[in-house]
Write a structure and sequence with these properties.
elongated, two-stranded parallel sheet, 4 helices, about 170 residues, Arc Repressor Mutant, subunit A, 3-stranded antiparallel β-sheet, alpha/beta
């Protein structure tokens, strides 16, 4: 069996090769979707990072490899990587490639009873205020008597209390 180096055995790891992908090439890209292919590819890579399958220091595939593996143009792959860099999920180094960065942790939000929560794509001003990248939705939380608060949907978990307690129930076990 041909083992690939990973970030636990080398300083910079190439975890993605044509023969050892952590996911199946071409999955989840839909040319008929209303979302641009670059946004779809960025979301696929974002999910791999957020799930922990790609960890800090992992080297992502090159633009050429992403284009070949997903049947898209190199420009589409470049735009996808640019989105992730803009969000701070990866850093791009000329001559080295794109490396998974140390991203901000997920925030837990506990809205008050009666709060309304909705999801939408942010305006340009909201994008700047919440530091979300292109095509990343925001969650708008509006609590009675308060101004609407926005959260990047990929960096927040909404905890809904049952109304009878003031804190979440203890973990089972």
């Amino acid at each position: 069996m041909n083992y690939l180096p990973d970030n636990r055995t080398t300083r910079l790891a190439v975890i993605w090769t044509r023969h050892g992908l952590p996911y199946a090439p071409r999955m989840d890209l839909d040319p008929g979707s209303r979302w641009p292919l670059s946004a779809q590819l960025a979301q696929l890579l974002r999910s791999e990072i957020r799930s922990g399958r790609l960890v800090v220091g992992d080297l992502l595939p090159s633009e050429h490899e992403l284009a070949d593996d997903h049947g898209v143009s190199r420009e589409t792959a470049r735009r996808s990587l640019a989105m992730l860099a803009e969000e701070g999920l990866i850093t791009r180094r000329r001559g080295v490639g794109s490396i998974v960065a140390d991203a901000r942790p997920v925030e837990e939000v506990r809205p008050a009873p009666g709060a309304r929560i909705s999801a939408r794509l942010p305006t340009a001003a909201e994008q700047e205020a919440t530091h979300v990248g292109s095509w990343v939705p925001v969650l708008a939380v509006h609590e009675p008597g308060s101004a609407e608060r926005l959260y990047a949907a990929d960096r927040v978990v909404i905890v809904i209390l049952d109304g009878t307690t003031t804190s979440p129930p203890p973990p089972a076990g």
